[in-house]
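User: Um, any thoughts?
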Amino acid sequence: MFRKELIMRVFIAGATGAIGLPLARALCTRGDQVIGMTRAGKSVDRLRELGVEVSYADAFDAKSVLQAIEKAKPDVVIDQLTSLPANPVEIIKWLPNDTRLRRDGGANLLSAAKAAGVGRYIIQSRGFYLDAADGQLADETAKLRVDAPNNIGNSARATAEYEDQVLATSSLDGVVLRYGFFYGPGTWYRPDGAIADMVRNRESAVIGAGNGVWSFVHIDDAVAATVSALTDEPGVYNIVDDNPLPVAQWLPAFARWVDAEEPPRMSVEDALKTIGEEAVYYHTRLTGASNTRAKAQLAFAPRPLLWAQKSPAIRR
């Protein structure tokens, strides 16, 4: 078992990402020794100014990943690797790259952590691809939606397999953090972010009944939960806020929050023709998640969804 008072060596793969960077900042502030895995580029300076030790490695190169972890000698490895576009319109097109990174890059990282004798291994999973009955929230026993269409299904299957591999590795404490959609600084969902621009330009519509329920989480709350996961009980946690809402409620509320007009409506038939099956799935099939276990075990205390303070939450 880890002792909270000890300074830890924490290896973050994906250390310059939306959660990787603020997580590195929080850990450095705590006094932990942080090693950030990244490829060469301008983002390296963002790690150095925090006091992060930079480790150069390509997630798809198993040998370089092993060398990086062996050199770092971390107590904990955290996989925050993602491959997502700056423009959310391109998310479905980018998902295959992200899926490959999760499947192949994650396998290299996990293999290296086992070989190096790492004690704890934490991965980023998805709290918005979980299966639950209509009107219910998914808890940690829920399976990912592996039957989802096209690129979403491929992503869910790769994520589910990765979760299983981590939890089945007896030589380390595996932790699966199923985050909701990130919002806040550095994300798409902020007043000056990409989604706000789409809403202001009336490029984002509620599809069909907009009954797909989304769980969000503020990026700083996700960071706090991840820090707690360094030392608390291993296992699966849904890292989501208390306000799971259907698209038909949260998207208009978001528009008001960013001083935009009410989003237009689009029929399922028109969306299938112009946007695609995946977009329809996001708006009509997603299920919200419950954070009960994270609150109990990680002392998780997420803030209310900032743009939906007056919107009723789905009953638990």
